[in-house]
Amino acid sequence: MNTTPILHVVENAADLVSKAADFIVSCAREAIEQRGRFVVALAGGGTPKPVYERLALPDLAGRIDWEKTHVFFGDERCVPPADEQSNFRMAREALLERVPLPEANIHRMLGEIDPEAAALASEQELKGLFRCERPALDLVLLGIGADGHTASLFPGTAAVRERERLVVGQYVDKLGAWRVTFTPVVLDAARAVLFLAEGSGKAGVVHEILEGAYRPDVLPSQRVQPAAGRLHWLLDRSAAAGLRTSGLASDQ
Ligand code: 6PG
């Protein structure tokens, strides 16, 4: 990989939750102090949910100026927002409805409409907020799948190779379903990216992504290399079990 990841390994899932939540608070405070607002993209899936719940508790939530915070999503399932599969629904229940975040600052992907139209709408919203063609989000949270996918960049799909669009609709054969996803264009423009992975089920793929040959078509998570930003990986000990850690900056 070209961008050297900064590796953080913690003891267990509970530590991962508190470290991730603290990390988000620091990013938010720094962004607001330096640029007057914090723009974050949330990940879906199971790993970040307890992180969002932690962030919603008063001790941490009280440290973020929510009026100056904007929330996007790195990907969405093509379902209505109230559907159990919806990433927006998960984030809303775990965090967004528990904190004083203005409705207008929530920029969800429209999973209920045509995926291509939803992707274009999301792209317009990004460009509109940033008033530029290559928005640099302050923080993008990402998970990884055991097959190496991240956001909804799945192995072998066109979305992984996208070089112009910020957001695309992508049919994923293995799921038999459409997704809307950020492309590497917007991921690579971020000021910081934080990958989260926990549990032994991710150990093999974490090793392949971080220490294996560069094969982004097979392991789309490898494609995320923020050119001018920081690339962080936060793992618990089980997810990090396959790593040699050589060549990686680590704080543990
Ligand atoms: C989604 C995601 C996806 C997720 C990974 C890991 O919509 O499902 O954003 O990329 O982050 O599949 O999911 P888990 O955290 O549940 O393992």
Number of strands: 10
CATH structural architecture: 3-Layer(aba) Sandwich
Alpha-carbon Rg, integer:
17 Å
User: How helical, in percent, are the residues?
Assistant: 25-40%
Structural class: alpha/beta
Anisotropy-based shape: globular
Distance, first to last CA: 21 Å
Largest sheet: 7 strands, parallel
Mean pLDDT rating: 95
Unreliable stretches (pLDDT < 50, length at least 5) are none
CATH fold label: Rossmann fold
Give me the number of helical elements.
8
Strand content: 15-25%
The strands making up the biggest β-sheet line up spatially as: 3-2-5-8-9-1-10
Q: What's the order of the H and E elements?
A: EHEHHEEHHEHEEHEHEE
CATH class: Alpha Beta
Describe it for me?
The radius of gyration is 17 Å and the shape is globular. Helix content is 31%, strand content 20%. It has 8 helices and 10 strands. The chain has a single domain (7-185, 193-224), classed as Rossmann fold. The model has no long low-confidence stretch (mean pLDDT 95). The strands form 2 sheets. Strands 3-2-5-8-9-1-10 form a 7-stranded parallel sheet, with helices on one face. It starts with 5 loop residues before the first strand and ends with a strand. It has helices spanning 13-35, 49-56, 58-61, 87-94, 115-130, 158-161, 184-188, 203-211; strands spanning 6-10, 38-42, 69-73, 75-77, 139-143, 167-172, 177-182, 192-197, 230-236, 249-250. The site of 6-phosphogluconic acid (6PG) has 15 residues, from β4.
